[in-house]
Amino acid sequence: MKAVIYCRVSTKKSTQESSLSRQKQELVALAERYHIEVVDIIEEQASGYDIERDGVFSLLDHFAHKKADCLLIQDETRLGRGNTKIALFHQLGKLNVTIYTTIHDGQLEMSESDSMVLQIVGIVEEYQRRIHNMKIKRGMNKAIENGYDPTKNLKNIEQSPGRSRVEFPIEEVIRLRQKNLTFEEIAVTLNGLGFSVSKATVHRRYREYHNT
After folding, report:
1. 2-110, superfamily in CATH?
2. Which entry of 10, 19, 58, 198 is annotated as an active-site residue?
3. For the segment 27-45, what is each residue's pLDDT rounded down to a tens digit?
């Protein structure tokens, strides 16, 4: 198992430097007890309510690129406070990161209230994903019912899956608009076809097309 050690204090006072050093020593000892390889040690002086921390970005980058699979912290407040803490717990959970703390001398024991909030966040996120997919499906079905055939119209249909589509499909926007789809329906439909566009972008490009 490979780990990132994260140490944080809330102020930049020189008196806090000893706290950072103590956190580091205790976490290194924790890693040794559990035979965990430490790949990076991040020390930071910043507010726990602030999510825009260089150290946070660094540790998330390690986990996103599979350079480590567990996080060592003194206690949950060192990672963050308030909504920032919940957001980071949620993100780390999605990355399947195991969290160890010195205060528990092992894996983090999350409070009942934090666990409940994270469950709610997970449920909301899942329903948002379902609603988004449903919008794409409904938009595409409406277009097809009105005679739209994407296999005949899309210029990029022969591109391999995952290839970036840099050209804005204005012709498709015009065709879908003629089928009485709203700009929001057009946006979700195009996203379902692989074009990353927003409702505002579709509206703006459609207006620009008619003004040229």
Report:
1. Resolvase, N-terminal catalytic domain (3.40.50.1390)
2. 10
3. 999 999 999 999 999 999 9
